[in-house]
Amino acid sequence: MNRRQFVEFGLAAATAFAVSPTAMAKNNAQQTQHVLPPLPYPYDALEPYIDAKTMEIHHSKHHQAYVDGLNKAEAELAKARAGGDYSTVEYWSKKAAFNGGGHFLHSMFWEIMAAPTKGGGSKIPPRLESALKDSFGSVEAFRAHFSAAAAAVEGSGWALLHVRPNDGRLIVLQAENQHKLSPWGVVPIMGLDVWEHAYYLKYQNRRADYIKAWWNVVNWEKVEDNYIRAITH
Ligand code: MN3
């Protein structure tokens, strides 16, 4: 290495050390902060099927906790990147998946429900209805399958209606917790939360009664919007 190369090398090294922490800090500063979306209706809008107290706690406490948990996990992962210490990467990656799943599914859940007086539980729009018939044989068969999947979730989780982009079909699956048991690539368009926090105040251990009541507040217009978005993107 001659003197000029040495100086260039030294400058490059100094630059690397001087610039990269700044760049990392900039990346960290630009990190998304997730926020709790407002409920699109008042807490008591889904009465008598879902009670106001359950909605208030579910939205303002449980969903908020997933938002906070996701922000915390992503901040910790950013810290790991900045410091180059990945000893906790497994822990925070799991937290990011769990809380990110919770944030995503609850955001969808509020949207795909509506007050019975504002269209909740009303007729399924034609495009979605025809897709349900194509994939499940009949709307009744879809409803029975989805209800059974919800009732049979082991512990805490969800029944989910997904679009599978590679063949455009609708499929019903379960999720355990907020994020397990769906394959890659599917797009959830409708979900039913069957964690006990979603129904226990009103229905106690009668999950089946909650599921049956829930059909009265499904916002089918929104589910169809989700469907159309999933197949056109
Ligand atoms: Mn929940």
Could you characterize what this model shows?
- This protein has 233 residues and is mainly alpha-helical.
- The chain has two domains: 3-40 and 50-111, Orthogonal Bundle (Helix Hairpins), CATH 1.10.287; 117-232, Iron/manganese superoxide dismutase, C-terminal domain (minor pseudopilin epsh fold, 3-Layer(bab) Sandwich), CATH 3.55.40.20.
- The protein has eight helices and three strands; from the N terminus they run H-H-H-H-H-E-E-E-H-H-H.
- The protein has helices at 3-29, 52-83, 89-111, 126-136, 139-151, 200-203, 207-214, 220-232, and strands spanning 157-164, 169-176, 187-193.
- The chain has a three-stranded antiparallel sheet.
- Strand 1 and strand 2 form a beta hairpin.
- Helix 1 runs antiparallel to helix 2 (52-83) and helix 2 (52-83) packs antiparallel against helix 3 (89-111).
- The radius of gyration is 23 Å and the shape is globular.
- The N and C termini lie far apart (55 Å).
- Mean pLDDT is 90; it is low at 1-26.
- Bound molecules: manganese (III) ion.
- Manganese (III) ion is lined by residues 58, 62, 106, 193, 195, 197-198.
* CATH superfamily (homologous) name of the largest domain: Iron/manganese superoxide dismutase, C-terminal domain
CATH class label of the largest domain: Alpha Beta
Q: Secondary-structure element order, as H and E?
A: HHHHHEEEHHH
Number of strands: 3
Lateral arrangement of strands in the main beta sheet: 2-1-3
Structural class: mainly alpha
Arithmetic mean of pLDDT: 90
List the helices and strands and how they pair.
Layout (H helix, E strand, L loop, with lengths): L2 H27 L22 H32 L5 H23 L14 H11 L2 H13 L5 E8 L4 E8 L10 E7 L6 H4 L3 H8 L5 H13 L1
Antiparallel strand pairs: 1-2, 1-3
Helix pairs in contact: 1-2, 2-3
